[in-house]
Design goal:
Strand content: 15-25%
Strand order of the largest sheet: 2-9-3-16
Bound molecules: zinc ion
Distance between the termini: 24 Å
Number of helices: 5
Order of helices and strands: HEHEEEEEEEEHHHEEEEEEE
Number of strands: 16
Number of domains: 1
Shape: globular
Length: 303
């Protein structure tokens, strides 16, 4: 297991003294959105912050923003080609990819923002790409930068991942343009210049060990199937087109996909600094050579 789950044997008040990191980040997001005009359109209650496990001493994302509002994909299939002749040898059945629906207390969730704990808590400016962006800045600014960065991915109008613009204002194919990073730095300064109550952000000043000492433990909201969380899934088309004709049509694995999640699927778990690495799920038996049509829409933006 990657994180210790507090079972019913644990006295409840022990947990209540611990710091719920995802709750604190969500409260900070509310404060940021109320003070940074460029983010004011974001409806924070429709954004769910949850925790994933990420070791502090390994590389990986600090946080990720996932949209749950991306429309169903065009019908498509996986295919394999003969390496020599380039001919289509087999393909899978047709499918569409869909977003699951998440509702918490009746509220439809448009975006999931995940935090990698404890990695996120131990993020520093020093030695990072952000060091030059905040000259002589305190290390915790790196964490505030990440939080603003993830919020900036939230497209409040279309419900997807915000399309970045180039310096001249034209839309960019990349999610992370230099302008995107500059906008985030500007918004971090805008937030701090608005003189927020330090109680809203001072927890960022502590690293994971400091938080554990201070609060006796760090918890976070997770999904019941930890470490899994709601993700886009393949849905076999009921009506299967007959083309393209190939020697073999591979049936899609008959996996049951969750389509709906509610607050009943949420859990609180305690995170520890040294937990086992997640064991990778067994991969598919065949390596797929391509997907038709190619997926164009960004559904998640990693950081
Ligand atoms: Zn990003």
């Amino acid at each position: 297991m990657t994180a210790l789950h507090l079972g019913s044997g644990q006295p409840r008040d022990t947990r209540s003294h611990m710091m719920n990191y995802t709750d604190r980040v969500r409260l900070l997001m509310e404060d940021i959105v109320s003070r940074v005009p460029a983010l004011s359109q974001i409806d924070v209650p429709s954004v769910l912050v949850f925790a994933r496990f990420g070791r502090a001493d390994t590389h990986g994302a600090f946080a990720t923003c996932h949209s749950l509002m991306v429309a169903d994909s065009e019908p498509g299939y996986y295919y394999w080609r003969d390496r020599r002749t380039g001919q289509l040898t087999r393909r899978s059945e047709y499918f569409v990819t869909r977003s699951p629906q998440v509702r918490v207390g009746g509220q439809r969730i448009s975006h999931l923002i995940s935090l990698a704990l404890p990695r996120f808590c131990d993020q520093t400016l020093k030695g990072s790409r952000k060091e030059g962006a905040y000259p002589k800045g305190a290390d915790w600014l790196a964490k505030l930068d990440t939080i603003v960065h993830e919020l900036y991915h939230v497209d409040p109008h279309e419900g997807g991942i915000r399309t970045s613009v180039k310096a001249d204002g034209r839309p960019a194919a990349l999610t992370h343009t230099p302008q995107f990073f500059r906008d985030v730095i500007r918004m971090v300064h805008e937030y701090l210049d608005s003189r927020p109550d330090p109680a809203a952000y001072d927890f960022l000043e502590m690293d994971f060990e400091g938080l554990q000492r201070r609060f006796g433990g760090v918890t976070g909201t997770t999904f019941g199937g930890f470490p899994s969380f709601p993700q886009r899934f393949r849905d076999r088309l009921a009506e299967q087109p007959r083309t393209p004709r190939v020697a073999q049509v591979v049936p899609l694995a008959d996996r049951a996909h969750r389509r709906h999640y509610t607050e009943a699927d949420l859990d609180v778990r305690q995170f520890s600094a040294h937990a086992a690495r997640v064991v990778e799920a067994p991969g598919p038996t065949h390596i797929v050579r391509g997907v038709h049509p190619r997926l164009a829409v960004a559904q998640a933006a990693h950081r």
